Amino acid sequence: MNSSIQQTIDELHTATRLLVGEGILDGFGHVSARHPDLPDRYFMLISNLGGPAPESRVLELDADSNPVRPGDARPSIERFIHGEVYRQRPDVLAIVHTHAPSLIPFGVCNVPLRPLYHMCGFLEDGPPVFDIRTKHGVTNMLVTTPEIGQSLASSLGARAMVLMRGHGATVVGTSLKEAVFRSVYATQNAQLLPTAMQLGQPTFLDSGEARLADELHHAVLRRPWEYWTKKHGLGLA
Amino acid sequence: MNSSIQQTIDELHTATRLLVGEGILDGFGHVSARHPDLPDRYFMLISNLGGPAPESRVLELDADSNPVRPGDARPSIERFIHGEVYRQRPDVLAIVHTHAPSLIPFGVCNVPLRPLYHMCGFLEDGPPVFDIRTKHGVTNMLVTTPEIGQSLASSLGARAMVLMRGHGATVVGTSLKEAVFRSVYATQNAQLLPTAMQLGQPTFLDSGEARLADELHHAVLRRPWEYWTKKHGLGLA
Amino acid sequence: MNSSIQQTIDELHTATRLLVGEGILDGFGHVSARHPDLPDRYFMLISNLGGPAPESRVLELDADSNPVRPGDARPSIERFIHGEVYRQRPDVLAIVHTHAPSLIPFGVCNVPLRPLYHMCGFLEDGPPVFDIRTKHGVTNMLVTTPEIGQSLASSLGARAMVLMRGHGATVVGTSLKEAVFRSVYATQNAQLLPTAMQLGQPTFLDSGEARLADELHHAVLRRPWEYWTKKHGLGLA
Amino acid sequence: MNSSIQQTIDELHTATRLLVGEGILDGFGHVSARHPDLPDRYFMLISNLGGPAPESRVLELDADSNPVRPGDARPSIERFIHGEVYRQRPDVLAIVHTHAPSLIPFGVCNVPLRPLYHMCGFLEDGPPVFDIRTKHGVTNMLVTTPEIGQSLASSLGARAMVLMRGHGATVVGTSLKEAVFRSVYATQNAQLLPTAMQLGQPTFLDSGEARLADELHHAVLRRPWEYWTKKHGLGLA
Prior knowledge:
Shape of chain A: globular
Oligomer: homotetramer
Structural class of chain A: alpha+beta
Order of helices and strands of chain A: HEEEHEHEHHEEHHH
């Protein structure tokens, strides 16, 4: 295994632990990273905490979200979230799919999750909400087919995040560090917005402020990543 | 002791620790499991954390909620919750009785605890609320007699959960894993629903979505169970 | 030192750690216990966490809240809360004075902290609110004199708890176990009541239910005490 | 290095860890202390948790917020918050800049963060809100120039705290202990005020009570400092 692949896998393990530590993932939800050398492949873990030894928990999937090595463990039935977003968004190198509690109300109510502060410029004027029922009827709510994955990726469009009605959200980034950063602070913004709305009419970041703040954070992602790895007792990946 | 009994008891210890770790049980509340070989008996622990050594904390109770071995420790005065539900619901193999804080408001207000997301399909259109006063007058609110237990079981009916006015809730499953899963996510749904209601009129899972989501989770209960055991520092039962 | 005194002091240390662990005390607030043999004396600690070795942190105070041994550490300027309540309430054997966050809003708004569930029968129809300004004018809000302590004790009357406007609350019990129990669950009831009020008009415990539930808990205080000592990694006192 | 400098740096490390532990700082935000001997200089750390060994994380900055030793690590781009407040406020010896979640809504809504209780007398009738856009147009929201720092310091005026629209807050004190104390309790007051407002019209501390309570706490800052150092497993600085 070459070193860029190893580094990606190491970061994927670290990202998973950080997201568990920050309450973004629990037994469900997952994070993935695009293969650094073969851009039509990506890596996922088969569990977020526990399960077999770390090296046995890594799955490599192809463009159609099939495991590259047939003997590997069974992949998540929701892997099409990742595969279809990677296909439609060549700029995306990492994806977090989460059921983080504070995001759930924003997927089922008609209130845009707009950015209250500079950490969340990537929210722009509020992520779109993907409703699986619109195109796919009554389901178990999960993204269990390539077709549903494609619908989700279309809802996401060129954004950083898409909310999913009755389910959760999917957040993308140009690195694992960015996808983790956005997941944590989107969740925090969602915790704060109902309170701000109770207090009055919040002044959101305007579009210029949102764009400039997002650009800034793009450049300083190592700082929170190192903070969270230290906080959660991990070595730096 | 045969191995299926031992496994049930081991899982009961694990379930108790997970529910304590997730804030579903504290010094009060309890979880039970039906006897795997003698379906008119069930097991409970005499305390959720601490107390005597684990093997001395297990009680085996008969169909009338009397301890099978007279020398055993004093059983919970609320054991009739378990005994009478096991009697009326042959499909139920595990029961959680909880005072989880977020559930309390839903037992005292006229708002159904409907499912905001796929984790909670088992909530259907909202659990019934058992009001002890209706049939049993002014009490200390606890289920201290077989008769009150029977009333509670009747309120539960064929559901997965019943709220209890001024007291808490009782959640059932076809396994300890399912009863634990439902307890944790019902509690989370209850935390999120007031926020969603503040934001606007939430779109709940419709009945078909709820049913399909519950069926799906029935099949993947090992995943969150392994996550919580790892998170709370326990070996896998 | 005889054994009942030693046991009281040991329990006082344990109670302090439990209340810190449960978020009822932080650097401020304090708990006391009446002297088991000399009912016109009581014990307090000079700090809740840290400070000198445990045996040097115990203060014995007389009926006027003066340290019995002149060389002892400086007592809390708020010790009159304890001294004057012990004087007016011979039935009280332990007192918790807390700034627990969830109680603060109920001291400054005109909403009674009524009991949502059986754990809080002692709240009856809502504790009185002591406003220091009524009798003592503009102060630093603290109970720094015997006179203010007497006013507070009069507000408390025969109740289990008194809220203090812009300050916190004082909770009493017939044992440290009871005062700890009441402090923890009053705080939890205060966390839940605003949510219940948002959902609708809550059904509170009626007075008969409240009385019976409080009597019941009076008899089972060992159970939550053992739970909290285990949870917070302490030996049983 | 003389002992007062060493003590300041030790306290700065401790303050950082306490503020991380209390949720006031995460990967972002920072605390500083004025140089004890050269009042036109101040100390900051280059990271809140992790990063290089403690002694390599200390930066000394001059009156214009330039590092005194050119070879030192890159200072925060937001150091002008500190430098310009120290310039305009000779009484200030320590500064905390925070994005603490509960403060964010009060920076974007038109509700003064008034003191609900005696811990927060320093809030007076509510801190001013600095809106960077008023003078500096569309930015990335950060205080990246001396000019913006001067505007912020002017908004702060003679107060203990200034809120920053879409960003966070800056809190000052006459010691690290005071700046830490104020940061923690301002954040707690901000968590409680929305609840109090939901319950009704809160009675805030009046101006005399606020002033007297703040004076009192000024005299007892060692108490909470020792509590937090013990709680977060640190030695006493």
